[in-house]
Write a structure and sequence with these properties.
8-stranded parallel sheet, two-stranded antiparallel sheet, TIM Barrel, globular, binds flavin mononucleotide, alpha/beta, 387 residues
Length: 387
């Protein structure tokens, strides 16, 4: 395996993760729904946007520091909530939360995490963000919100684009269902990942930590699976968001907005921020890329609410382009998961270093020394989406 010092871009991390993580979990991370058209568009559309180079501008004393929902960040990048992160690497959520804290960016813990809220707070410190999926069992949701508060989470991210599940062919073929039914080929593949197996044998964290032991009647992996599969609530609506906001009482971020009408409803819900996101191309295949959807939403509500974005970010250039198009903050999903699967905590730290360096240097090439000065004037007209 390559030494960490030879890793210079997110693609390097992806290749190492592909070798180290069992196929069924690598595929779970690195895939989109149906034709994966939206998944590909998320990255391709970033590539089409061109930057305007400036020269002989004083580039000394640069800063990428900013804020997201009023919290200071070393750069406008948070770690996105991702389910089953503790399956990319043993204790994955704790390791990623530690790396994010050390770097000075937010970590968002998924409802579907392996390490529980309390466990992450105890081993990586409080202050991380918590992502909520709205389940049919509202008493469970109430308790989750209360647990996130008690653990010292500093923002709640409510995901609205997963009332029903998008279909990923690879997950079905790999038997990644709840409960998992790995194929023989997967089991053989698993046997080629001794490092991963050793990690898993060395940790007690192998279940959905936020759910296991917190729902009556759910005692083992098979009824936990059945409960989870039935729980995503197709009736979710904006009334639920109001109720969540009241119960939570802190910073609220709405995730999964792709059109101005829904952005308007997010503003009316009283949220502090919304995330333009197509769930990394994992839900509605055929939707445009998130960077394509961003400008119309910024134009519609950008003066009333913080607009963030995710889906497709693989470099600091992508972060800069999103910021130039009005995203106050961005989130990385796979970019940090590759780092985690490849090298654990150090790999996540590496992913953040890589993105930060690319962001800082690209900003300088565009003639800006402070991220707060970045706007669409750094982009080449005709190459970027407009409202
Ligand atoms: C493996 C994986 C699991 C995910 N699980 C969740 C989740 O539990 N909750 C959620 O709101 N979003 C989830 N997402 C979506 C991410 O939060 C984010 O929107 C997406 O990863 C951004 O795209 P990117 O991976 O191209 O950066 C998941 C994404 C991936 C790749």
């Amino acid at each position: 395996m390559p030494d960490l010092s030879t890793i210079t871009c997110i693609e390097d991390l992806r290749r190492v993760a592909q070798r180290r993580v069992p196929r069924m979990f690598y595929d779970y991370c690195d895939s989109g729904s149906w034709t994966e058209g939206t998944y590909r568009a998320n990255q391709d559309d970033f590539q089409r946007i061109k930057l305007r180079q400036r020269v002989a501008v004083n580039m000394e004393g640069r800063s990428t520091a900013s804020t997201m929902v009023g919290q200071e960040v070393a750069m406008p990048v948070a770690l996105a909530p991702t389910g089953l992160t503790g399956m990319q690497h043993a204790d994955g959520e704790i390791l990623a939360a530690r790396a994010a804290r050390a770097f000075g960016v937010p970590f968002t813990l998924s409802t579907m995490s392996i390490c529980s809220i309390e466990d992450v707070a105890q081993h990586a410190g409080p202050g991380f963000w918590f992502q909520l999926y709205v389940m049919r069992d509202r008493r469970f949701i109430e308790r989750l919100i209360d647990r996130a508060k008690a653990a010292g989470c500093s923002a709640l991210v409510v995901t609205l684009d997963l009332q029903i599940l998008g279909q990923r062919h690879k997950d079905i073929k790999n038997g990644l269902s709840t409960p998992p039914k790995p194929t023989l080929a997967n089991l053989i593949n698993l046997a080629t990942k001794p490092r991963w197996i050793m990690g898993m044998l060395g940790t007690p964290r192998r279940k959905f930590g936020n759910i296991h032991g917190h729902v009556e009647g759910v005692t083992d992996m098979s009824n936990l699976g059945a409960w989870t599969a039935d729980q995503f609530d197709p009736r979710l609506n904006w009334g639920d968001v109001e109720w969540i906001k009241k119960r939570w009482g802190g910073k609220l971020i709405i995730k999964g907005i792709m059109v101005p009408e829904d952005a308007r409803l997010a503003v009316e819900s009283g949220a502090d921020a919304l995330i333009v996101s197509n769930h990394g191309g994992r839900q509605l295949d055929g939707a445009p890329s998130a960077i394509e959807a961003l400008p119309a939403i910024v134009d519609a509500v950008g003066r009333e609410i913080e607009v963030h974005m995710d889906s497709g970010i693989r470099s600091g250039q992508d972060v800069l382009k999103a910021r130039a198009l009005g995203a106050r903050g961005t989130y990385i999903g796979r970019a940090f998961l590759y780092g985690l699967g490849a090298y654990g905590e150090q790999g996540v730290a590496r992913a953040l270093q890589i993105i930060h360096r690319e962001l800082d240097l690209t900003m300088a090439f565009c003639g800006r020394t402070n991220i707060e000065q970045v706007d669409a004037s750094i982009l080449l007209p005709g190459t970027y989406p407009t409202p």
